[in-house]
Structure formats: structure tokens, C-alpha cells
Design a protein that fits this description.
The protein is α+β, with helices and mostly antiparallel strands. Helix content is about 50%, strand content about 15%.
Amino acid sequence: MSFSAIRSIATSSLAVTQMQTALTSANIANADTQGYTRKVATQSAVSTGTVGSGVSVTAVTSTVDKYLLQDLVAATSTLGAATTAGTYADKLQNLLGSTTGSDSGGTSLANSLADLETALTALSGTPESETLQASAIAALDTLASQLRETSDGIQGLRADADDAIEQTVATINDTLNAIAALNDRIAGAQSRGEPTADLEDQRNTALQTLSEQMEVRYYVTADNQMRITTASGTTLLDGSVHELSYSSAAAVTSATVFDAITVNGKDITAQLGSGALGALVEQRDSVLPAAQAELDELATALIATLNSIHNAGSSLPPPSTLTGSTALSASDAFTGSGTTRFAVTDADGALVSYADLDLSDYATVGDLVSAIEAVDGLSASLDASGHLVVSADAATNGVAIADVDGVAGDSDQGLSDYLGLNDLLTGSDAATIAVRQDLLATPGLLATSALSVENSPAVGETVVSIGESGIGQALASALSGNQDFAAAGSLKASSASFADYAAKIVAGVSATAQSNATVLEASESAQQSLADSLSSQSGVNLDEETAKLSELEQQYAAAAQLLETLNSMFDTLLQVAASA
């Protein structure tokens, strides 16, 4: 073997050992760097003909197990979804409050309903008490306000989720573009014969960031280019990035229709799978609307039940004007049967005049209005909004209404209830429920009496007496008794008290929060286990790298010694040649 061949072997050995040393040193230095994987240099022998002439590094690669990485990416998506679901479940639980074993404890709607029942029960025993009337109205106002605030809170959470969807879409697009840029850098490095392992680490880290936000499928091509699709197969990254598109709503209510999340104009909203984005859409479009539906069912039943009872009663003194809440037109068809009494009384409830109207006699709303207008001492008309207004002609008198056996409309409501002439609550759902404004200002307008429907009362006879009707007790009993609730949200149709139904809402949300916490814990454990496995398989072991560094030092010393010996031999040959 020639001196030049030996020199080539020694020199290449030194160069390879230097590279291995640099690589091992980099492994040690980056042992705690997030996403860094252990790099390995692949060596191969260099030969000239059949004679070895040295060694070279043919590649620098990482040691990532691609199957472990795939499992970790999937687990990260699951964790992203579980984290988001858990966060919103906790927020919803905080919004709805908590229950306790005591009617007077806790912060939930059930407790507010219990407070209202207590106030109405006290009022039923002393219906003439202005203090108790004010307490009952205050308790009802507190409940209505809590329902509105809770409804607003649910829609606020939906708005938060909607904003987060837009932000998450932006994060996904940024990450896709980052991966595309890394693809380009990897292609460039490969064309120059440079190592790409560090760039691949960065790409894998970006992939995990992406998977936390959105469930994806991916693969790496033969020329080391990553390709990404949604879980359902819509392309997100091939030779170029196909960005997601979404704009959040300017305002969110229960009626808001949201834009679709699209890729190249294709709606992928229903195809998101796991990840934070899919969980946000589920919260906005399914979980939170279900909670709103349950709350609306409670509010709607409360409005209908209390208004039905309150419309059967009257305050004392009776109000001089009653204004309906149902919008009608004079030409609207009217369906009714039985008899309803309209009466004019003085401030003490003594009869001034009355008429019993046979509801089957009227074919239209206009016919009914004309009949009421014809009652001595009363005026009746539809206002600009289509609401019936009934007033006593004398400002010192009042109006009282009672059904003898009259019913109106398809649901066989009492006439006053059908027209909404003496509603206790306004609104139609949890977002709009409120105590009638004049009752808030004047609690004495609360109906704790009722018009007598005895036959042929005489003028001057007391026909409205405080507490005689049992209206106060009926209101209290309505709170404690069972009501029929339709299926709403996650709750089946049932018969329950208002407080029990409200407790079911809170309990359901609490159970969901606990379930989500369990899922989150399991998801965190699974993701961490896979991350640890990947780290163990592809991460840096300091003990191993330190030992390898020591081994490389010995190899370097041996190669250097070979080169030194070769130089010495060459010097000797030169000396011999010079002396010949």
C-alpha cells in the first residue's frame, strides 16, 4: 500500500471522527431541547478498486420511530379536544352555579326558585302585605335576571368559542405554512448534499403543534416532503398550502347562523374530527346550544305557568287599564267557548258594572274587541302593535276579568291569558324573560285577588276581595308542584317541579364536567406516555453520548497517531534519499 493511500485512510478517519465528535457534542448540548432527537452519522468504507482507501459519512439521520410519531400525533389531537371540552365544561358549570343540600344555600337557579317559592308561600298567608308583595316581586325579578344573565353567559361562551375558532384557524394556517417552508428547506439541503435531520425535527414539532389544533393525516414522500390532509381526506398541504378560511360572527345569539370553515371553498366544518378546532365547533354548535335549550324550556314553562295563574287574578284596587301582550289583528280569526266576565269596580272592589261575554259568539278578534267596547264603563281597542287595551272610562275605577268557564285559542287558555292582559312575566325564553315593568315599579299590582264569578252580582257588591281567590297560594303551589317539561338539550321529557328541573340542568352540566375531567386525565396520560416512549426511543441519552464521546477521542488519537507515524516514515525516507 502506498504512502498516499495510508495518508488518505488516516486523513479520512480524522475527518469522520471530527464529524462524529461534533454530532455527539450537539446531541449532548441539545439533550433538553424540545423536539430535538438524537442524530446518528452513517459511515461507509471508501475503496479504490479492491483496496480500502478510507472512510466517509454518507448520511446524518435522526432515530425517530415513525409509528410512534404517528401514535403521538393522534394522541395530541385527542388531548387538544379533551382540553378544550374540559375548559368549556368548567366555564359552563361556573355559569350555572352549584346546588347544596339546603334550599337556602348554593348559587344555582334551583336555589333562586326555592327563594321565590318561599316568598310566594309567605305572601299567600298575608296577601295584603305590601312588604311581602314587594319581596315576592323582588325574588321573581332575581330569578328572571339570573335566567337572562345565564342565557347571556351561554351565548357569551359561544361567542368566545367562535372567536377561538377564527384564532385556531389562523394558527393552523401559520403552522401549515411553516411546515411547507421546512419542506422547501429540506429539499434545498438535500440538493446541496447537506444533512436534513434537524430540519426534520423542526417539521415534526410543527406537525405536533398542528395536530393539537386539528386532527390530520400525513405521510412523507420518497423525496422527504411531508403531505397533510384532514381526517376526512381534504388536502391541506401537497406542493402548496391549502389554507382554512373562517370569519367569526360579529355578534352571537341563539339564532346566529355561523359561516362554514372551508378549504378551497369546500365546507369541512362537519369533518374536523378531534383537536381543539373540532371541539370548539362542538361546543359552539352542540353542547352550549343544548344547555341553552334546557334553560329556555325552564323559562318558557315558568312564563306560561305563572302567567296563566296571574291572568286569572286581579290586584286590589284593580288597575284602570289592562294591556295585552299578544299581537293580534282585528281580522284574525277568533276561536273560543264558554263565558268570560268583564267588570268595572271602584278602588275597593265594589261592582260598578259588568257583562258576561259568550266567547263562541265572536268569529274574529275585531268582533271580540267590539263586544268588550260595548260593556258599560269600558273602552277597548287594539294599539299600534296589535295589543288589546281595555280601560275603565272613569279614572277612579278599575278593570277586572275572570273566566266563568271561558277558554280561547287552540290551547284552551283563559281569555285574559290568551290575550296576555295581566301577565306576570314578559318575554318568551331565558334571554327575554322579565317581570312586567309596572309590577317592578308598583308591586301592589301583583294579583293576590280575583273577580268573583257568582251569578248576577249587584252594583255596589264587593266582587274583588283581598286573598279570597287563592291566587297567591296557586302561585306558590305552581312552584312546588310538578310541571310537564318537553325534551330539551340532553334532558328527556319529564314531569318535575321547577326547582327539580333546574337542579337537573345543573347536575347534568356538573356530570359532563366531571366526565370531561376524567377524559382529559386519561388523554394527558396517554399522550405523555407516548411522548415519553418517543423520547426514550429517539431522545438523547447523556450517559450513552458521553461514553461515545470518550470512544471517539480514542479513535481520533489512533488516527492522529497513524498520521504521525506516516509522517515520521516519510521523513526517514527523505533522509535516506538525501544521503544516497
